Predict the structure of LysR family transcriptional regulator.
Amino acid sequence: MDLRQLQIFVSLSKTLNFSETARNSFITQPAVSHHIKSLEMELGTALLYRKGHKVILTEEGEVFLEHALDILKTEARAKTIIKNMTDGMKGVIKVAAIPTLNEELCCCLAELSKNHPKIQVIIDQMEGDEFMRCISADEYDFYFGANRMFSNLVGYNQVITKKTRLKLFVHNEVVEKNDVTDWEALKDLPFVSISPTDTVLTEQVLEICTKRGFTPNIINYYNRAELVPLAVNAGIGIAILPAPLEEGNPFLNVRTFDINDEGAELFHIIAWRKLRNSASVEFQKVIDKLYMKQNN
């Protein structure tokens, strides 16, 4: 298996057309067929089949596509890192972050770049379950997440950067027609939420609703937290979300309300297990400078 085969396969998965893939790849159509056939022989399974003039990925092809994209992404990232090091960049830090900690991430990056502009920072933004998997495997140098994501973890240093809360996000028309301080009036309304695979936020939302005697009627899920306010703005449903998502909110139809419940508390945390290199040491100094005082 080589990278060229993966590139051809990924291109074909997008175009679903051998001729178009051949043109885009500057090779002949038989060459495309040869690359795909060689890849299938190596994997021992068919990755696609023809249906009329269309190309359709098999179930195995769909699964392999995810891994092919990851491999190509890793290869491109590795090339960039090495090129930057050759050009004078020194040190690499890997950061995993959830979207609601963008403010802290920006502050840390800005402070780091003042004194260490040649340190490369690789950032992967992700949602709850993927974030927690990365923490368990210790795949990154630093983790920007919420308190419940670090429960029962041993061996991690943690700094609280902000104390915030979950809030109720509601469309203006819902506010006009309902008493939003009365959960009895809200329990029958449709909810929208982050994907249930984000178990941390999902469990916290369910706890809040269960205390009030109902299970939210969630009619739609979204794979990114920042998409949920968009759905509220469109009048699709109401939502319980982290308060930082209302900051810089461009949606004129959305209003937010406090939830008076200890279960709605949310702490923003930066965590790390070990300092792997000198670049990580410098980044940890930045974290201490910006946030350690409020942890004392």
About this structure: The longest helix spans residues 59-86. The chain is about 45% helix and 25% strand. The mean pLDDT is 88. The radius of gyration is 24 Å.
